Amino acid sequence: MNPELNALADRLRWAAHAAGFRDLTVTAAWQVGSVACFALSFSPRTSLRELKSRQDDLSRLAYTPVTITQDPATGMVFAQLPAPRRQRLIAGAGAPKLSGARIAIGRLTSNRGDAILDFASPAHPHLLIVAATGGGKTEAIHTILYQLARQNRPSQVSFALIDPAGNRIHPAWDNSAHLALPIARADLDAAIRTLEWAADIVRRRNAGRANPSPRLLVVVDEMASLFGTGRELAERARRALETITQLGRLVNVHAVLATQYASRETLGSPFIRANMPARLVGRVDSAQASALATGREGCDAHRLLGYGDFLLIDDAGPRRLQVALSRPDAIASLRQAPSPPPPPKPAEIPLQPPPVELELVEKMRALLAEDPAASNRKLELALFGYTGGAATTTVKRLREQLCAA
Q: At what angle do helices 231-247 and 188-206 cross, to 10 degrees?
């Protein structure tokens, strides 16, 4: 343990003893990015719930924010504090390189290796990113794009990038060979056209009229700009995103939707949220915002430190990680396009796409006509390609509707 971490561990021990946890000891210490981690040992008389309920007291006594976390994989309990000297992980030529849609985006603060996203898996078909200003939301997007681009040729993965504010997605991406369309910057009409173009691809691929490759990643960096606009544009954005998030995974179309404002309006419709089982949540403003952003209570995202300090929420439970930073020179070193891709033509985009709900109802009616006794699990696999979560909720609701009819 280096001297600075040792001094911080002593301060944590003193705060724990002053708070009445006299059996608590620090068994190991390490640093990941901006977070100093201390593995804790304590007697069975002290519960994890009691420790978490006293986080504010520990923070006051230690004169620094203290967060108590349990690793869902090992059950080990950690105290996590701001590191004496903040470090940033850098994604570059030396960053972990996996394959396909499986990418490393940073390092787990539990000291158990890299944080992995796999867009080809049922756990991460789409990703919702929420973080307040300074949390590292846009940097996380850049690292996701960078890792996908360095692992895949443009014929394997392409991007549709939407930047309604016009100054979030770095200009280094403007000439990327992986762009399917020009980046939609500071132009709401272009942003909506891009979403409807992607939704049309999803419908055509589902209907078997288009090849389900290359894999397409649709990125929106600030959803509040889409849903805070006029009612007609917001409704078109909502319909397109519902199509992409509900049916896209089956045909290799994935959404990464980001916002810095955790509210029901800016996180899209409940239908969109229900189809995004994976979330990357940075620092937010309150416990209420944490519950809304993570989709569950007790994750304490309002205690995160910013600067790339995130929680990854998926079917494995909440895990804290440090997202790596991708510098512009690393992005610029990727394959560049000889000429920019053409923008989508408004005439090619159906302004009134068929509702996703009707498509699902017709598919389920056909499945039940073939096998009236089909289980919900079988229907979930047939409609979504995975079971549990939003698939279970949607199948139950649609089955009830069909039975009632």
A: 30
* DSSP states of 240-267: HHHHHHHHGGGGTEEEEEEES--STTTT
Structure tokens given for 223: 């959803």
**Which residue(s) pair with 33 in the sheet?**
none
- The CA-based diameter of the chain, rounded to the nearest angstrom, is 71
Cα(23)–Cα(41) distance, integer angstroms: 8
Rounded distance, CA 98 to CA 116, Å? 9
Alpha-carbon gap, residue 230 to 250, rounded angstroms: 31
- CB burial readout 264-280, b (16+ within 10 A) else e: eebbbbebbbbbbbbbb
> Is-cis flag, bond preceding 214, omega within 30?
yes
> Which residues of 278-334 form beta strands (DSSP E)?
278-281, 309-314, 317-323, 325-326
Beta pairing class for 253-259 and 215-221:
parallel
CA atoms of 245 and 204, how far apart (whole Å): 15
Instruction: Give the C-alpha separation, 287 to 302, whole Å.
Output: 6
Task: Measure the CA–CA gap between 313 and 295, rounded to whole angstroms.
Answer: 9
Q: What is the pLDDT of residues 21-68, one digit of tens each?
A: 998 999 999 999 999 999 999 988 899 999 999 999 999 999 999 999
8 A C-beta contact, residue 243 and residue 203: yes
DSSP states of 73-91: TT--EEEEEE-SS----EE
The per-residue DSSP string of 46-58 comes to: S-HHHHHHTHHHH
Angle separating helix axes 390-404 and 376-384, nearest 10 degrees = 110
Q: Could you report the per-residue pLDDT of 291-339, keeping only the tens digit for each? A: 989 988 889 999 999 889 999 999 888 999 999 999 999 999 998 887 7
Q: Which two tokens stand for residue 360?
A: 């699902």
- The burial of 169, by beta-carbon neighbours within 10 Å (0-12 exposed, 13-18 middle, 19 or more buried), is given as buried
The pTM of the full predicted model, rounded to 2 decimals, is 0.83
Residues 390, 202: Cα–Cα separation, whole Å = 19
**Contact indicator for 14, 22 with CB cutoff of 8 Å:** no
| Nearest Cα residue to 323 out of 140, 130, 112 | 140
The residue written with tokens 């307040």 in the block is 132
Helix (H/G/I), strand (E/B), else coil: 8: helix
